[in-house]
Amino acid sequence: MKYPLLRARRWYLGHREHVEPMRSMLLSRLPNHSATLPETEFVALDLETTGLDPSIAHMLSAGWVIVRGGRVALDTARSHLVRPSKGVGSSASVHGLTDTLVGGGRAWSNVLDQIVELLSGRVLLVHHAGLDKALLDRLCQRRYGVKLYVPIVDTMELELRSHRSQHHVESKSSMRLADLRDRYGLPRYAAHDCLVDAIATAELLIAMVAHRRSRTLGDLLA
Questions:
Q1: Beta-carbon neighbour count of residue 177 at 10 Å?
Q2: What is the pTM of this model?
Q3: pLDDT digits over 205-218, tens only?
């Protein structure tokens, strides 16, 4: 969604009846489109889910960290297990989150409230927005009656865009978070831990901006 349209949609929805913290998030000031990375705050977010279909998947854990002043603010790093309404199924073999572990987690509505509150005045930062954003849209629609209207920076999309601009998109070139970190000289972290992946995405964005010398938020937006 174009930035002016996003701003107008948020203003319109925010002045209708909506529960908190969604109303406050919608009415919060959007970061300036021409702001630089150090002038913009991001919420790097990662979710672990029960599957890859956002229309039926359940959130099992959420991890986030704020990027502030062009740095990863590690004191803001948080993660929560989320108690699903159904079992984790075969997804446990991917992320290691068993029914026993998530059974003691928080209600998804509580974790969603925290995510929405954090996004007031900030940009959502993810690696591969497709699943996570679609799942958040579904959950927000269910809880607040409105989708999650936030500016998004997607590190995978940024890399794909760079390849297209150089006219050498390689069909076998991996866009996995770990492989992109390798390309930018960043250390390898263990995968499929939501907080580790959120921090890894935040570091990747900073490295990408430094490498490409992207100047503004507008250069980064999906």
A1: 21
A2: 0.92
A3: 999 999 887 789 99
